[in-house]
């Protein structure tokens, strides 16, 4: 489904350059649940965003179904992200002035997928246990509820690929387990999932785990 070949990423700093990714190659199959584990600063989030078309590699290529995404024009890559990928972040990235319904509904506008409407928003919020919180803004909800909104926003457009960057990092163990269970459930429904985590226990729940140390893939 998605493949990285010889990916290097160098960030230019004021005093020195930092190489975040070092010659990384990997293949993710359709329907796979892959976890990427590593310590803070290891490069795992950079790899996730590179796979998702958000950070251009310094060298190397990323392929979506054998098509190199960083050779596309910016608007084509943006359309591809909107239609194909659901992103879930540790910081939620919710709009504080929008209520729960609108925070999820806005994803449909960005995805430009035909046939999706308000009923799909209500269905996914019901699945997340938030159907009684439609008019609440994020500040009126718990951290766990906010992450469920973020997950609902990623899922409502029916993406082929879900990229989750430390989605349980701010959550208590019970809520974290609930989020992972939802990810496992949608994976069983056919979604491909890439989960970034520093927690080896969560990583083991995936079909396959890769480890990044100082920007390099390492054996586990």
Structural notes for this entry:
- With 220 residues, this protein is α/β, with parallel strands linked by helices.
- It has a single domain (30-56, 72-219), classed as P-loop containing nucleotide triphosphate hydrolases (Rossmann fold), CATH 3.40.50.
- Helix content is 34%, strand content 28%.
- It has helices at residues 44-51, 74-84, 100-111, 118-127, 143-155, 173-188, 200-203; strands at 2-12, 17-28, 33-37, 59-64, 67-68, 85-89, 161-165, 192-197, 208-213, 216-218.
- The strands form two sheets. The chain has a six-stranded mixed sheet, sandwiched between helices. A four-stranded antiparallel sheet has the order 2-1-4-5, covered by helices on one side.
- Helix 3 (100-111) packs parallel to helix 5 (143-155) and helix 4 packs across helix 5.
- The protein is globular, with a radius of gyration of 17 Å.
- Quickly count the helices: 7
**CATH topology call:** Rossmann fold
**H/E series:** EEEHEEHEHHHEHEHEE
Sheet having the most strands: 6 strands, mixed
CATH superfamily: P-loop containing nucleotide triphosphate hydrolases
Summarize this structure as a short list of keywords or feature phrases.
220 residues, alpha/beta, Rossmann fold, six-stranded mixed β-sheet, four-stranded antiparallel β-sheet, 7 helices, globular
Write a concise synopsis of the structure shown:
With 220 residues, this protein is of the alpha/beta class. Helices cover 34% and strands 28% of the residues.
Write the layout of secondary structure elements.
Blueprint: E1 2-12, E2 17-28, E3 33-37, H1 44-51, E4 59-64, E5 67-68, H2 74-84, E6 85-89, H3 100-111, H4 118-127, H5 143-155, E7 161-165, H6 173-188, E8 192-197, H7 200-203, E9 208-213, E10 216-218
Parallel strand pairs: 3-8, 3-9, 6-7, 7-8
Antiparallel strand pairs: 1-2, 1-4, 4-5, 9-10
């Amino acid at each position: 489904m998605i493949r990285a070949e010889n990916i290097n990423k160098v960030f230019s700093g004021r005093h020195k350059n930092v190489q975040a990714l070092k010659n990384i190659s990997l293949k993710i199959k359709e329907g796979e649940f892959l976890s990427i584990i590593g310590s803070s600063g290891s490069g795992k989030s950079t790899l996730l965003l590179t796979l998702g078309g958000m950070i251009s590699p310094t060298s190397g290529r990323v392929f979506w179904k054998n098509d190199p995404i960083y050779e596309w024009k910016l608007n084509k890559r943006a359309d591809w992200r909107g239609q194909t990928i659901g992103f879930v972040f540790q910081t939620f990235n919710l709009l504080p002035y929008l209520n729960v319904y609108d925070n999820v509904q806005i994803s449909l506008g960005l995805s430009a997928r035909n046939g999706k409407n308000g009923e799909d928003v209500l269905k996914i919020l019901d699945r997340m246990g938030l159907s009684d919180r439609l008019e609440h803004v994020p500040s009126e909800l718990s951290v766990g509820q906010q992450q469920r909104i973020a997950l609902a926003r990623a899922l409502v457009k029916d993406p082929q690929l879900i990229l989750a960057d430390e989605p349980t990092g701010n959550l208590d163990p019970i809520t974290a387990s609930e989020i992972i269970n939802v990810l496992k459930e949608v994976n069983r429904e056919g979604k491909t999932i890439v989960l970034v985590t520093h927690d080896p226990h969560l990583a083991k729940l995936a079909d396959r785990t890769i480890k990044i140390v100082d920007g390099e893939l390492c054996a586990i």
